[in-house]
Design goal:
With 83 residues, this protein is mostly beta strands. It has one helix at 66-72, and strands at residues 13-15, 35-37, 43-45, 51-54, 61-64.
Length: 83
C-alpha cells in the first residue's frame, strides 16, 4: 500500500487568556462564556490556555488544547513564511 505524509501547513494561532482579545473569540453581552464558532456553525467554549487556530479558509477557527498544540505545531524560525 502506498504511504503518504501530511503536507506542512503554516497556520495563524493565538493562545487565549481570559480577558485578552484573541482572534475569533466571541463572548455573550456581559463578556462571559468565551467561545468560537466552528466552520459547522457550532459554538465551542474555550478555556484559559487553549490555542485558537485560524482555518486555512481564513474565515473560521478551531480550538486546540495546549498539550495537543505543543505536540502538533512548532513555531516558525524568523523569516519563514507561508508561500
Amino acid at each position: 500500500m502506498p504511504k503518504y505524509k501530511h503536507k506542512p501547513t503554516v497556520i495563524d494561532a493565538e493562545q487565549y487568556f481570559h480577558g485578552a482579545e484573541c482572534m475569533g473569540v466571541e463572548t455573550d453581552d456581559e463578556g462571559n462564556y468565551p467561545h468560537i464558532v466552528t466552520v459547522y456553525g457550532q459554538k465551542k467554549y474555550i478555556t484559559k490556555g487553549d490555542w485558537i487556530v485560524r482555518e486555512t479558509d481564513g474565515i473560521h477557527f478551531y480550538r486546540v488544547s495546549p498539550a495537543v498544540f505543543e505536540a502538533t505545531y512548532e513555531a516558525l524560525e524568523t523569516g519563514e513564511q507561508d508561500d
